[in-house]
Design goal:
Layout lengths: L2 H16 L2 H54 L15 E5 L5 E2 L12 H7 L5 E5 L6 E8 L2 E8 L3 H32 L1 H16 L13 H54 L2 H4 L2 H29 L9 E4 H15 L5 E5 L3 E4 L1 H18 L6 E8 L2 E7 L32 H11 L3 E6 L5 E8 L17 E2 L1
Parallel strand pairs: 7-9
Antiparallel strand pairs: 1-2, 1-5, 3-4, 4-5, 6-8, 7-13, 9-10, 10-12, 11-12
Helix pairs in contact: 2-4, 6-8, 9-10, 10-11
């Protein structure tokens, strides 16, 4: 294909794609009917032409046999040839010397062909041939006596032409009717799509996700409407979750921000008056600055947790095969660096999982932080890791007062804090992040009562086959981080 032809084809393709679905269906229906009519016309014309020609040939053979029988009785030179009636068949007698006889008043036939001459000479019994003259004769030559007789008929194409004209009219009517039917079917069939489009446009314009699209139609249309309604429901849930997150975040940020603002305003006001040293002794200033530092740290932690929750995924890190014991030990080390007073007793065995190390470490760290808030100063937070069937089990328990039965169902909810925990630092997001990380790894997080009377938080994760022989830690190798 040349370059201009290729450009023209691409232009035609772009034009076709810009047409509406109704227009394309109408054109396809009309084209299909036009092609069907054309093929039917060609086949019918050939059949009709073949039938008419076969009938004409049979009639010429019959007439030739009658004429040949008369010539056998009376001789070719004496056989009677009635005058030409003005229409119908034409006859001719070929004498042995090659001369011919024709009825009086009959139009002249084309000259005897070479093949017809051989029939008269006895080379063959008969011959059916078509003349290529303007009249288009169909000539049948039959051996008779020492010569031959010929019967001819003008090839009449008028029946085929009349049939073709009728088929053309019928075809045009069918194409027009097909286009109309195609347009009607397309309009009727696409009516649910139109209503669906209008509903989608209305949702996009008004941002109203509460109105479901009416379920109508069947088959593919119904499945499409149900899919869009499911999408709208998911969007509603997402929007409600965002609203709740924003409201809860504003509520949680309000307290530390208010306290921070009041303390800063107090310092600014005293500094402007020049009474900072006299109004605030060194001990009070130290306590106030410590409070400011704690409030800033709380805000930093809260903002980090909010950012983590606002992300659509656990993290951008890739999943890898890792030893969960390394993750637990690293989390315990971070807990000790963040809160030096916390004591963590580890009892870990090498268990391999497929996961994201940073996310898993954050989850274990949150579990330890949560337990550290409740565990008495003389009681360590116990962290255990073991393989149990096809799962890697992490257990974190403390010796605190435990979790009330009424609070258990909401322990992993965002921003939820039990009444007994409102005086303690924290945002109520730590265990929610644990739940999300565990869910992302195909695991399960549960809460129960510890044997020491406190809370026991358990995480089950799908275990993976280790890359090679793994030396498990024995009881004598258990580590304590303080």
């Amino acid at each position: 294909m040349s370059r201009p032809a290729g450009r023209e084809a691409r232009r035609l393709t772009r034009w076709w794609r810009r047409r509406s679905l109704r227009t394309r269906l109408t054109v396809i229906a009309a084209t299909a009917i036009a092609v069907s009519v054309f093929v039917a016309f060609q086949v019918a014309s050939e059949l009709l032409d073949w039938e008419l020609r076969d009938t004409a040939e049979n009639q010429l053979r019959a007439d030739s046999r009658v004429l040949a029988a008369n010539a056998q009785r009376t001789g070719l030179a004496q056989v009677q040839l009635p005058p030409y009636p003005g229409s119908g068949r034409l006859v001719r007698v070929i004498l042995p010397d090659g001369s011919t006889r024709t009825p009086a008043g009959q139009p002249a036939l084309p000259p005897v062909s070479e093949r017809a001459g051989r029939v008269a000479q006895g080379a063959s019994a008969d011959l059916m041939e078509s003349d290529n003259s303007e009249e288009g004769y169909l000539v049948y030559t039959l051996r008779a006596g020492d010569g031959a007789v010929q019967v001819a008929r003008v090839a009449d194409d008028s029946p085929v032409n009349r049939f073709g004209f009728g088929m053309l009219l019928i075809g045009l009517f069918c194409v027009a009717g097909g286009a109309l039917v195609g347009r009607t079917v397309a309009r009727t069939g696409l009516a649910p799509i139109d209503r669906l489009t209008a509903a989608a446009v209305r949702v996009a314009r008004t941002r109203d996700l509460d109105a479901d699209i009416p379920d109508e139609g069947g088959g593919e249309i119904r499945r499409l409407i149900q899919s869009i309604n499911d999408m709208l429901a998911a969007l509603r849930d997402s929007r409600r979750a965002q609203q709740l997150l924003a409201e809860d975040a504003a509520h949680e940020l309000r307290t530390p921000l208010t306290s921070l603002r009041l303390n800063v305003e107090l310092l600014i006001r005293l500094d402007r008056r020049g009474t900072l040293d006299s109004a605030l002794p060194a001990e009070s200033r130290t306590r106030l600055l410590n409070d400011l530092g704690a409030q800033v740290a709380e805000l930093s932690t809260l903002s980090a947790e909010l950012t983590d929750l606002a992300r659509g995924d656990v993290s951008d890190e890739n999943t890898e095969l890792l030893d969960l014991a390394d993750v637990v030990v690293a989390a315990a080390t971070r807990a000790r660096s963040r809160v030096p007073d916390i004591e963590v007793a580890l009892e870990v065995a090498s268990v391999w999982v497929s996961g994201r190390p940073a996310a898993l470490q954050r989850a274990v760290l949150n579990l330890i932080d949560n337990a550290g808030k409740w565990s008495p100063a003389d009681q360590p937070v116990q962290v255990r890791l073991r393989a149990e069937g096809a799962s890697a089990v992490i257990e974190v328990d403390d010796a605190g007062p435990g979790i009330d039965a009424a609070d258990v169902p909401r322990v992993f909810d965002r921003f939820y804090r039990a009444d007994s925990a409102r005086a303690l630092p924290g945002s109520g997001l730590g265990l929610s992040i644990v739940q999300r990380v565990v869910d992302a790894h195909g695991g399960r997080a549960t809460v129960a009562r510890s044997a020491r009377g406190g809370a026991l938080l358990r995480v089950d994760l799908p275990a993976a086959a280790p890359p090679g022989p793994i030396a498990r830690l024995t009881a004598g190798e258990d580590t304590a981080a303080r």
